[in-house]
Every structure is written in C-alpha cells, then in structure tokens.
Fold:
Amino acid sequence: MRLHVGCAMWTHRSWQGRFLAHPLPAHERLRAYAEWCTAVEGNTTFYATPARETVTSWAQQTGPGFRFVLKLPKVVTHDRRLTGADEELRAFLSAVEPLGPRAHALWIQLPGSFGPTDVPALARFLRGLPAAHRYAVEVRHPAFFDDPGATRTLEEALVRVDAEWIPFDTTAFFRTPPTSDAEREAWTRKPRTPLRTRALTERPIVRYLGRDDPERTVEGWQPWLDVVTGWLREGRSPTVFVHTPDNADAPDLARRFHDEVRARLPEVEPLPEPTPVGPPMLF
Structure:
C-alpha cells in the first residue's frame, strides 16, 4: 500500500543546505530530492520540451517506483487548445520516453477559458493519445465545478479513456488574506476553484496549496487525510503534491502529510530516509 508525495519542483534555493546538500551539482539535485519525496510535478515541460538526454538523466537519478507527473507543453494545451499540435505532441512523447514507468501520468492542464463546450475537443484528443501512458486533466473553468451537467460531461469523457481529473485545492489558501510577499503574488495568480475530492481512477492525483506558515498548511489539509486514507483502503494508489506560496518547507511538509496518513493507516509503506544534510559550506 503506497502513498506517493511530492512538490512542484525538485530544487529550490531555500532547500540548499536544509533538504539538499550544498553545494550540489544541478544534475544530482533530483537524486537528492528523491530521498525526501517519491513524486514530483513536471512543470518545466509546460514551457519547453526537454532534450531526450536530459530526461534520461532524470531516469538515472530516480528509482523505478518514483513518479513524474509531467505537464504537456503549453503550445498543445493553451496555444493550439488540443487541435493541430500533432508534431509538438510527438516530440514531447518521444522526449519523455526514457522515463518508462516513472512517467506516472501525462498532465493536461487546460486554460480557464476551456469550458464545457470544449469537452468534445478534449474527448477527441484523449482518444487519439497512445495507450502506453496514463493521462490526467486539470480544468479551471468554473462551470465544471458549479454546473452538475458540465461536471458529468467532463467525467464521462475522462472515464471512457481511464483518465483522472486533477483537483488543485486552493480553498485553504484563499480562506484568509495573504500575509507575505509570496502569498500576495500567489493571491493574484492561483485559481479559485471549489474543493473536489472525487477520484475517477485507481491512481488519483491531488495538488494542494497551503500557506507560508507550515501550521496553517497542515490545518488546511486535514480534510484530505480522510479522503486519501479512504482511497488507500479502497485499493487506490494516490499521489499528493504539497505546495506553498514560497515552497520553502515543501519537502518537509510533503513528508509530514505522508506521516499523518500513515499514522491513520500504518500499513502504508514508509518513505525513504533522506541522507542527513550538514550546514551550508562557505567555500
């Protein structure tokens, strides 16, 4: 019984000397991160398809059970809106091939303007994707959350191809006004979508945004403990990504979420023990 947890990236300046050794070459930081967490969001692939050699390095730095949830390129999802981007999609699929089973899901994040009338385009796109991968979709148009008919239409399109709906839970973040520069920036950029806790597949994926105060982040994720524990008891294999506006403590928080689930369900497999990190070196 495994619960995978992770962050929005595998390296962050504030992690150096705390979670990751410092100095540490860039090509070894993913290996160090994988001692803390068992999954990572591939947000950089949204902006540019990586070289195949780069992806091969990612595979070499992680074990076969590590999970990448990789975002499809912006040109496919936002610029072309899932239509007429076959060449860019093929290039992306070829680039990520070295990950093999580590490519846990290919993540189709859609713009806020992508609404219920666009679901047929999504359904056609999903049907045309190779069966070698699993797929997960994140939507932000309010109708998918507020209109039961739109919710049902989207769910039906996803279920037909065994694709997951990724919720991005920002409800705890928007509950009270921001108190830091990072929170104020996130306040203007992050989507305000209602809470969704329904899984469609055996491998649900959750993105959760807390606050820069770790205790407020922990307070906000309490409802997810019951949800994730329930999924595990049903035989599902969830992945939970913990975000905060500054992400300074994200690896520790991800492990803390895992610990809290495991306290309720001790049969969940423990996380790896990270290598101790000493104080930052001056030279």
The two ends are 44 Å apart (CA to CA). The first helix runs from residue 29 to 33.
